[in-house]
């Protein structure tokens, strides 16, 4: 289980604790964060670094530093969430814009630099809503990894990073230690509906070579550029999967219903069901292969073990969306900024496609991705702009449920989380343990009074 409330577990009750035990088999930089409604933007988040004993870039750097970037709101989510969702208070459905930008959850980040060294910088976007441009004054960087996937070295002077994405870059320090340099961060305001006067979209950090020298003035990136991450080639040379044996098409749309601003894939807004989806998969026997048992609003797709899954996401919204999937780092074959894709179109793509677990689907465009369903589990796919997840822009992949039943059980400690709040731990989405296709009582309408 990996934490999403209602997907793989029940939430941890106030005043209690829960221990996650898991085997790490992929190195890189990640971040822990609450996957309960609207909590991580208020600060329940932080980096996790996984060292690699077989790092192909070992010996090419002398020191490591971590740089998180995020947005910050002055109002907290228990107020902002119902404001955003309510058609009464927010008739246009616009997302609240943040007040400011942060490096390492502050605005005074400084790194002590030594001359003539190569630094490995781990960059993580732990923000709620904002994509960022990052630039190191008078220092180029070489990208060597993204989202835990090593890539062929790629030199650049800027990084563009969406919410939930991660990068590793190498940076050579100056030989002259007399001068200090700024690090500039800039929100991509092109994603915002408004440009409020209260918002400061920039943040500065510092590369400090000389503590006796003055810090440079903060500066704004004057020519922000996006990295084309489709040009970043995985170092392992993994060939494109195919041909696909299962195809899933997801269309991003926004609308209002039940007096709420909602979002969803294929006109289905995601809603937490009475039974966590993983628990249904483990308790529904042979019926676990049928998506109906998980409830319409879990937006579930059942994947056969070993299937080559082609995932098409069409974005009918006017803004881009960083899409994140749990349990996989798909190959991304095609991204088109204008128009929509239908299965069967001829595809032209690199033999070694880019892959990562969080990718940007452009406004009015699409991305075609593929992965092999070789990781039995229940995996959440969602927009990592937290407002959109709160509004229901999510789907669930139930992967090889019969294999899952043969290999997994729910720990007693996890069941106790559900018991503490009176949540059933078996049955279909409605908690029916005998008639799995009787969904009477499944959740089909949003909570009329959401709170963080």
Give an overview of the whole structure:
The structure is a single chain. This protein has five helices and 24 strands. The protein is mainly beta and 452 residues long. A hairpin with a 2-residue loop joins strand 8 and strand 9. Helix content is 8%, strand content 33%. The model has no long low-confidence stretch (mean pLDDT 96). The chain has a six-stranded mixed beta sheet with strand order 4-3-6-11-8-9, with no helix packed on it. Strands 15-14-17-22-19-20 form a six-stranded mixed beta sheet. A five-stranded mixed beta sheet has the order 5-13-12-7-10, with no helix packed on it. It has helices at 77-85, 277-283, 386-390, 401-407, 412-420, and strands spanning 28-33, 45-50, 63-72, 100-103, 110-112, 118-125, 132-136, 141-146, 149-156, 159-161, 166-172, 181-187, 202-208, 246-257, 260-265, 300-303, 308-315, 321-325, 331-336, 354-355, 358-361, 366-372, 377-383, 394-399.
